[in-house]
Amino acid sequence: MGSARQAEVARESDSILRRRPLLFGYLVTLGAIGAVVTGLMLYGLRSILFSVFLALFATVGLDPLIRWFQRRGMKRAWAIVTVILIIVAVLVGILWVVVPLIVQQIAFLATAVPHEIAVLRSEGWYDTVNEATNGVLAEVVGWISQQVQDPATWATIGNGLVGFGLSVLNAATTGFFIAILTIYFIASYDSTKQAAYRLVRRSNRDRFEGYAERILQNFGKYLSGMVILAFCNAVYSLILLLATGVPGAFLIALAAFFITLIPLIGTVLTTIVMSILAFIHSPVSGVVVLVLMLVYMQVEAYILTPRVMGKAVQVPGSVVLISALAGSTLFGLPGALVAIPISAGIILIIKEIVMPRKERS
């Protein structure tokens, strides 16, 4: 029946092409122009669409927290209200505490790091190590000093940490917009899902809903698991840097939180950066930070990750690297963070839908 319909459509198209070629060309041109206009509109709205995607990801990631409150005897409505109040409290805390502290830390680091580098160069062992490395140490220390004193570096760091926009004001506005969208999506999460399920043919709806619920739950566990691991890493980094006296500990720990949202490579990157900054402060601090971060990496890999992630889908290391590279190339750090959950969702769909179908066929 389907093939007959396709053959009929093909004959009608061929008939229009032969009898009215001008009309056929006009329709094709209109279709091409419509596609180009649609593409330009989507490109112009890319920042808004990206914010909507991030809000959806945040909603799915917060759903396990709502379910956790439900398992503790709280009704879903009150669980949603509790999570929304937590989001509002976090926003207030960011505006009143985090933002002023970040500004203070940036101003402090801009003057503290050059002083630390000057002290480092005056150490007796510096010239010996520099000669042993054929001047590599001097080049690295000089590059770090130049980057720290360059205002563009701090602008880039601020943009990467907040993630959305070319300026602090734009980033704050976008972050507020995402937070409001997330609150709205959380409040209407169940009704939105049911409305989406009704778009599926009735005969396949129950099966589709079952697959979708399993995928969303595992997806949410993966997102919330990444946030928990990143938070643990940031807290550990903050305590370690404060204990060793490294300047700018809070700012470095905040950066570690966002960077370690990228699994596999995030902790490695933060370990390298923290070790270099600690080494500039003091060789003893550098060794302590490096050793204890290596210990934490083992604890995270073999104890924290299996317990936090649980049954959430695991993303292969090669997929993590490719996704992070592709996402960061398109949208910077936020793109890298979003690309990995998308990859996890695709892998989950393959495991939950494609592979079982292949086994039954």
Task: Report the C-alpha radius of gyration, rounded.
Answer: 26 Å
- Number of beta strands: 0
Described by the principal axes of the CA atoms, the overall outline is globular
Instruction: Provide the succession of SSEs.
Output: HHHHHHHHHHHHHH
Uncertain spans, ≥5 residues at pLDDT below 50? Answer: 158-168
On the 0-100 scale, what is the average pLDDT? 74
Oligomer: single chain
**Termini distance?**
23 Å
Count helical runs: 14
How large is the share of residues in beta strands? under 5%
Going by helix content, strand content and strand pairing, the class is mainly alpha
Helical content band:
over 70%
Biggest sheet architecture: none
How is this fold's topology laid out?
Blueprint: H1 2-19, H2 21-44, H3 46-71, H4 76-122, H5 124-132, H6 136-149, H7 151-162, H8 168-187, H9 189-197, H10 202-244, H11 249-259, H12 266-281, H13 283-309, H14 317-360
Structure description:
- There is one protein chain.
- 89% of the residues lie in helices and 0% in strands.
- With 361 residues, the chain is an all-alpha fold.
- Helix 1 (2-19) crosses helix 2 (21-44), helix 3 (46-71) packs across helix 10 (202-244) and helix 11 (249-259) runs antiparallel to helix 12 (266-281).
- The two termini are 23 Å apart.
